[in-house]
Amino acid sequence: MRQEPLRYTPFSYRSRYGIRLQRLTVDGGFSCPNRDGTVGTGGCTFCDNAAFHPAYTRGKSIPEQVAAGIAFHKARGRKADGYLAYFQAYSNTHAPLDMLRARYGEALACPGVRGLVIGTRPDCVDGDKLDYLASLRAEGYIVEVEFGIESVYDQTLRRVNRGHDFACTRKAVAATAERGIPVGGHLIVGLPGESPEMIVAEALALNELPLSLLKVHQLQVLKGTAMEAEFHAHPEAFLRLGPDAYIDLLADFLERLREDIAIGRIASSVPPAFTDAPWGLLKHEALVRSLEARLEERGTWQGRLAMGHNLSQDHDF
Ligand code: SF4
């Protein structure tokens, strides 16, 4: 049983690497196979990638972005022993290996940068790219990969036009972890057609993956996306959870999630372009406090019910 007051496993670079590492968002100029025609052109129905670019990345080279990012965090008094270049926008392994080497190399050459965090799709990695990332780790750099999983259900992945299935995620996560690279996953709670029971059961499918990090966030229906049109046409397909119900559902989910999968985020901030905002402008820290309090009220913790489920009997992933 875990010790109070920690009832879930929060992720921090400090606990993983023993030093304070600040992540700097870097736009590497990559594209997305679900937008450029490689897999599709429409993109995932929930996606408005422009929402994920901080102002300091716009119109700058990679070294300029790194320098601006460091200045941004220093100006806010955030101390760090080193920096990680976080390639977040679009799919950051969706390019030939030579291009990856060049762009990652630019970031790694910047003073203070200790490594990379690479956000990508599971269908955008292969053995050569992963071997290259593993070789960077062998040179002493920190390298982590975060995959957009979004859902473990193929029916949901088809509905949101994701362009890959969950088997693809399983394969990519395994191939990455096999090379000793820490793997994270991103999951969206509340995608259309998913019931609370389905969402809670996702933890059981994720437990079977060699993940060391999970970032979870509530569905945000952004203005101008295909999902906004679906939301207006079929509101009954969306859970539309308020913060209180979301925290309850998250507690159910975490009870079933392996304790060693660290939680990097439990919600996203709500931008003004959010089309249906029952949340208002809640801060992440406030939600974390609510989650801790809810777990305590219930006398439960992450992983309490993670063992002993027979996936093949109970669920069809
Ligand atoms: S969410 Fe990611 S994979 Fe989907 S369209 Fe947007 S950038 Fe591409």
Give a verbal description of the structure.
By secondary structure, the protein is α/β, with parallel strands linked by helices. It has one domain: Alpha-Beta Barrel (TIM Barrel). The chain contains 11 helices and 7 strands. It has helices at residues 13-17, 62-75, 97-108, 127-138, 154-159, 166-178, 196-206, 226-233, 243-256, 284-298, 311-314, and strands spanning 21-26, 82-87, 113-120, 142-150, 183-189, 213-218, 262-265. Strands 1-2-3-4-5-6-7 form a 7-stranded parallel sheet, with helices on one face. It starts with 12 loop residues before the first helix and ends with a helix. Bound molecules: iron/sulfur cluster (SF4). Iron/sulfur cluster binds at residues 32, 34-35, 43-44, 47, 49, 90-91, 121, 148. Residues 32, 34-35, 43-44, 47, 49, 90-91, 121, 148 line the site of iron/sulfur cluster.
Which structural traits does this protein have?
317 residues, 7 strands, single chain, seven-stranded parallel sheet, alpha/beta, disordered C terminus, TIM Barrel, binds iron/sulfur cluster
Quick structural summary:
By secondary structure, the protein is α/β, with parallel strands linked by helices. The protein contains 11 helices and 7 strands.
Strand and helix layout:
Elements lengths: L12 H5 L3 E6 L35 H14 L6 E6 L9 H12 L4 E8 L6 H12 L3 E9 L3 H6 L6 H13 L4 E7 L6 H11 L6 E6 L7 H8 L9 H14 L5 E4 L18 H15 L12 H4 L3
Parallel strand pairs: 1-2, 2-3, 3-4, 4-5, 5-6, 6-7
Helix pairs in contact: 7-9, 9-10
The structure holds iron/sulfur cluster.
